[in-house]
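Ticket reopened. Same input as before:
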Amino acid sequence: MAHDALSFRSVSAGYSHRLVLDRVSFSVREGEFVSLIGPNGSGKSTLLKTAASLIKPISGSVELFGRSVSQLKPRERASLLGVVPQKLDAPMAFSVSEIVMNGRVGSMGLLGRISTQDHDLVERAMIYTDVLPLADRYFGELSGGEQQRVALAMVLAQEPRVIMLDESISHLDINHRNEVLQILLNLNRERQLTIVLVSHDLSLSAAVSDRLLLMHEGRLAADGAPHEVLRPELLGPVYDCELQVRPDPYTGALQVSGNLEGRKLAGSSGLRTHVVAGGGSGIELYRRLLLEGFGVTTGVLNELDSDAEAARALSITSVLEQPFSPVGPIAAECARMMALEADAVIISHVPFGSGNLVNLELADDALRRGRRVFIAAGLAERDYTDGRAASRLLESMTARGAQSWQTMHELIMKLQQQPS
Amino acid sequence: MVSKQESLPRGGWRIKLQELHTRRKRAVCLDNRFTSPKPRRARIALFLAAVPILLLFSLMMGPSGIGIPDLETASGSAIFSLRLSRLLMGLLTGAALSASGVVFQALLRNPLAEPYVLGVSGGAGLGATISILLGASLALPLSLPIVAFVSAVLTLVLVYAIASQGSGGQPSVYSLILAGVIVSAICSSIIMFLVSSASVEGMHNVIWWMLGSLQPASPSQQQVAALLVAIGLGGAWVLSRPFNALVLGRDMAHYQGINAGFVITLGLLLATLLAATAVSLSGMIGFVGLIVPHVVRASFGPDHRRLIPLSALGGGLFLVLCDAVARTVLAPVEIPVGVVTALAGGPFFLIILQKRMKQAWIG
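Engineering reply: fixed in the latest deploy. New output:
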């Protein structure tokens, strides 16, 4: 049985104090073109580094063509796996051809001469990537896109059987990006080169890849053909925003787009919201609500509270109470008026105690007067009031139509639905 | 070629021509003119031709007069052998310092790296100061260089251990540089304190040692030093390809099949060996290890296979010339050679670097 080119078996890995990969398992067959997608910080780069044995897994095993990566000699590993980094940095004035020649360093050994074959491989790699005209220029003087092509040439000269590209093509102009992808596709078809591409361009990944691996918070959220992975219900929670997927009317290629396109035309939704927050639980709410075009007011907050600071920084109208004090009657009345002017009241993941129970009561008041109310799930665990007054109020509000929300994405969706 | 063709049978002409044609075609393919290094051959040849001339010139300089001394007389041959052995000291020290600077700059990827960056000077200086002030250097003939060398190596071990804390055994270059600077500063303070509370004579001896000089060391010490410098230079040269790869960063070198941690550790050790040898031989001579690598890199390119030997040669030559100036200009008073290196070499190298800064370092 042929071995997989690359396989991860329940790999956990990370840095000294932070676990990044959490029991990741997958395998890539030889000759496959796979894209690794996922939001920033989901562990894609760490996965690449683990595959190249730059980071040792804490548990689990990584295998290249059936051999454990950590037991391969550096030279052997380099002949199997090449990595094109996000950015290549050469502080000294190496010429482009000298840089590309570095791709042969592993196989040349310490004292071996540069053979004709080495020269040929370097030249071929430079011709493929269209950097031959740059051969005598200094690497450090090239533009970012040209440097990326040189880095790719260097890794091609290394002649690995698997190439991993870490967002290496995102800085290329459209012509050279297509060219580089064309090179990769050709190598993939003609020479069975296995390619793992980390990319943020979901449509592009769908167009070139046999398979997509979707990473989310250090785990593999999905693994399958592009049309299986690129589904809004799968992508939405991972990227925490609304995405549309539709086939291109001419080519049938899958196109993923955010909701920015319609934004300019639609303008702001005009909906006004009043946010009940505190202790830092409101900052992400303010940010997203403002981004989505909602009007936002907030209160009652205590001065010096991080939410109060954020609201001031974002110029959000807010009702403030003295620092570290229970909410008094005047502030409560102001906030009540404010909540009644809004179309919806949103309760963040804020804990409730006797000092700020008033904030929940003003939401209750707004609910009675026909405003929509959204309460962050799990309020019962954050209830520190005497006799669990907040939980009882929650039950009664839920009975009268207050809705619960968990993720920001879900809340925005619910807000945008017209009230029935 | 012509005679060969003439000896061919008539019918073979066409075939031969065709063969010639294909051979030439293949020759075009094989000459790899795009990627073959375009060595600055002319420039390197010029430099190599200048080396013996300049060395000879330095042999002619000295406080006793300019010119080759009369080897027939006893005093003349003594002067000549003194000059010759100072020349060898200069070559050895300069080569060690500037090759060490090349390696540090490559491994730490920092243009300010120099032989003393990991605390070698501070450690060696402290050891030497204690040895001088305790009078041990007078009692035992070889104790000063040995103490200087051992304390330099101990300092490196200390710096490496501090920098490795909390990073799982593999220190980052930044923590190495920081730890080196801090340990150096502490050593300097202790030296200052010791010197300030020492006798006038002790103070004079310490300061003179720290300024550096190429007074010939004992033959046995020179031999040991030459052996150590040869080991350091040879080792560094063997690692020159991995050094090239490491200029692109530790991660990239790792991806290309280099055992990066091993090469970095070994390279730092070799560079420190060179620096410690130089310090134990001639005291602390500054400037050579920092600037000569930059000037050589700017002139002959950054490929370490050429850079390491050329820097060693250039550093040695530079120090020999500086020493010739130091002992001649104010004769019979001798200027410390460490003063001349920066004072005379500084402006000269500044002019070169001004024109070729880009080739020296792109940051």
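The radius of gyration of chain A is 28 Å. Chain A touches chain B through 51 residues (CB under 8 Å). Please confirm and we'll close it.
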